[in-house]
Specification:
heterotrimer; A mainly alpha (321); B alpha+beta (191); C alpha/beta (148); B: 191 residues; alpha+beta; three-stranded antiparallel beta sheet; C: 148 residues; alpha/beta; globular
Amino acid sequence: MPETAQYILWTAFYILIFPGALFTSVVGLFLAGVDRKVIAHMQRRIGPPIRQPMYDFFKLLGKETIIPHAANKFVFLAAPVIGFVSLAIIMLFIPIFGFTAVSGSADLIVILYLITIGGVALIVGGSASGSPYAGIGVSREMVTMMSYELPFVLVLLAVARKVGGSTLVFSMEQISQWQVENGHMLFQWSMIPAAIAFLLIIPAEVGMQPFDVAEAETEICEGPLIEYSGAPLAVFKLNTAMKMIIMTGLFTSLFLGQFRTGYYWADALLFVAICTVLTILCMTTVHAVTARLKIEHLFKFYWTIVTGLALSSLILVWLGL
Amino acid sequence: MMFPFLKKAASNIVNKPSTEAFPNPAAKGLGNYRGRIEFYPEKCVDCGMCIKVCSPGAITREETPAEGGKNVKRTFDLTSCTFCGMCEEFCDDCSIKLSQDYHMVEEDAEKLCTTGTSFIKDIEGEIVCEIGGCIFCGLCMRNCPQQTINVDRPNKVWEIDHEKCIKCGICIGKCPKKVLSYGEPDETHIG
Amino acid sequence: MFRKLMSKSAMKSPWLYHINSGSCNGCDIELVACLTPRYDAERFGFKLAGTPRHADIVVVSGPITSQSKDRLVRTLAQVPEPKCVVSIGSCPRSGNVFKGSYSIEGPLEKYVHVDVSVAGCTPKPEAIMEGLYQAAQILKKKREVMGK
């Protein structure tokens, strides 16, 4: 019996605190703050403090929550929570170098689906709000998802094939172990196009400029989020921040998984540091130097250049290189 | 180059931000910036020109009788002002000045007002013109805020409407020959 | 403690929603100038929100034309509490040079309580910043009242 109790306690700890909800939220908000600070400096501004997204979050919790008449109340309020839960669970499957909370044989597929739920929550919430602007935002969000899902799957397939050799391996732990033996995935030259494709997918997945067509605030008034206020909006903002750590974290464990310090806390610190660097590299810098794309340009970009990169990597891997 | 700002963005991280401090007490409007209205009531002669030229009607005048004259309170409503500077331009006594102070932020909009009470002494007599000295140049006519004076140069006519005259005395100051004064019309003075 | 954190955050992260109710565009560009690197309102957490539902501070410019009156009133009703209204320039307070026009339905005070007025035609960005900063302090007070 004590073993079962211990198991339940540890699972609760994993889900609620360490790689789960709390860790993901705090690090996600930290990354969002770093993003805002660095982009301010890139524009020669002072910028908000790094804890600014936390202020935003708590402020939104303290605001009145308005539910529009046209909205489906239950779906409207449930959508952000569903997104939050699915995103908090993803982190359990991503190994923080030596540490994995939950591991199975098909982690990558679970992660792929759970990340999609994060996007689908936005779509469902937007559709439930009953605003025409949200309708446009939802359709754009769908197109964005369709655009990046294809290269995303191809990248994951390439990784799985590379690790499996002649079969596909979707277990994160095995991918991690393979990298300990064979060096970083990033330095396998056949995987370099896939890594670049992954880096290009990150901003679209998170919804950062220039791929924030779905939430274009100057154009369609924040799209799916238009009717949200107060606590549900806070959760959606938190979801966006969490996606930052999840996507950069996924890149870190897929492509830079060789690091081992031997201590879990040092591993976690190194993990966060790498995620910060990746955030600055592939989100902040891209945001600072580009303007928002049109939806058809985004679609074309992902289905030609990014898919091409991912596909070339997959073909190279399939050929055994 | 596809991303022309990439280099700039990278170099800006090292550069110091170009942001000004806030609040910045040293910040001031530029040379001819027109900000908060300053009013010097002791100089005002109550000619009413400022009220006439004010396009949004931001200036109001309130008159209360006092011993030996009247108290005139002028209110410049800064929440109504366009800061065009016409009142300053038309003020003959330099009693209105648009300063360079732009800190006009209040929670209570009633405080966004410049007020001043000037004492206007009652004046004995009317504006009169000395015959012979007047050259009918018409400066008094042009500067009169109430358009009470009429000068007809070819016919050598100088007329004044005493009912409209508010005795501001601007014409006295403007007369190049110094022939205007307060007094009663007689054989040497017309009025 | 949680309440204290929320009231502190209300002051630290005020999001703006800008309503142009027939403004000449002078005040609008000065408001946008506040967000430029020179004045950088974002260092105090100010951010332009895309929809009134996300806003804390509603910034109104313009003399409220009869065409925009309806939209203004409806937009103000959509802003969740605690909210703050800031008027920029002379127009919303009085109508400025358009005072008395058949197409003006001002002043703004008729429809909503204006928390902070910034005078000027147009005000300098520094003055607007000062006004927004005062509005953020008011937001904190309002949040504290709301929490009780």
